[in-house]
Amino acid sequence: MNQRKDTYRAALQREPDTTAPRQTKVARLHTRYVRVTIELDPALPDELTRWVGPPVSALLRVGAAALRPLRDTP
What we know:
The chain is built from 2 helices and 2 strands, in the order αββα.
């Protein structure tokens, strides 16, 4: 248990390797008890668009098709 705790603390103290240039956005949250690092890949918006775009387009087409008869009725 102690060894695991020491390993965890050592990992928290380590800084990331700065030899390779990184193109990621980094957000850090440091409090007394919690240290969180969030790295965002710069390609994330493209990936989200690629995965979310087709389902959203399909929903819009279905909604337009469902509303078309209601709009055409006097």
